[in-house]
Amino acid sequence: MDIFLQNLANGLSLGSLYALIAIGYTMVYGILRLINFAHGEIFMLGAYFLYYGVLIFNLPWWLSFIVAVILTAIAGMLTERFAYRPLRKAPRISILISAIGVSFFLQNAGIVVFSGVPKSFHRPAIFDHMFIFGNIRISSITFASIVISLIFLMGLLFIVYRTKTGLAMRAISTDIETARLMAVNVDQTISITFAIGSALAAVGGILWALKYPQIFPLMGMIPGLKAFIAAVLGGIGNIFGAMIGGFILGMAEILLVGFMPQLSGYRDAFAFLILIIILLFKPDGLMGKNVQEKV
User: Which of 57, 91, 182, 251 is deepest in the core (most CB within 10 A)?
Assistant: First the structure.
């Protein structure tokens, strides 16, 4: 039982990070029917912005966190403005290729600007504390990941379901042309959507770097792909589905390694196996609904 609870706590922590990143995928897809393959690189930028905020500008850790989230949100908005908006009326394949191109561009720009050498990420002492409950040992960063993630997730739900901006997002996701006729500022709303999704990815990237204190330009590739799997698992385009998918995937990964350590080398393959199974048997995801694509 102790082993199960230990792994459950670790799984919830990892799942909360997947959920934060997955929401960025699902929000953009819900509005534009676009898979933003550069989202994993936005995740990476958040960690680097905080790293250099502390290292070069000597900002307090909490202030660097806020600045990093804001800068990453701006990066997401710039990505939408220059890479996606000009192609909004182009064939779907064009914007998909643009998304892949942005991903490769940010990866290689990160290698040029930040260098490809992994860097140790400073973790404040408050995140090194260990809580002991009998035979269960849970680090403070595990608690922090879950709590901070839930706070931001609840904040997102408030924005989407309790504000005019959220109403505009939901209107655009239903019918973008009708929303435009109803005086919704489509360009501004989409830009805000990218900003929110990128900000959540930044929080996920920072918490990821705190949990695994090393950063490098390609650090967002695998977490980004797994978050995409989580979004598909929950039902891409559905915010609640992305949250649930993230937690399910995180717990499944940790429990697999915890109870069958001989399969630990297949941890990443297990995530992709889940994707294949979902696409084969329930392509709409656990909470998704069938949406007819426009061509």
Answer: 251
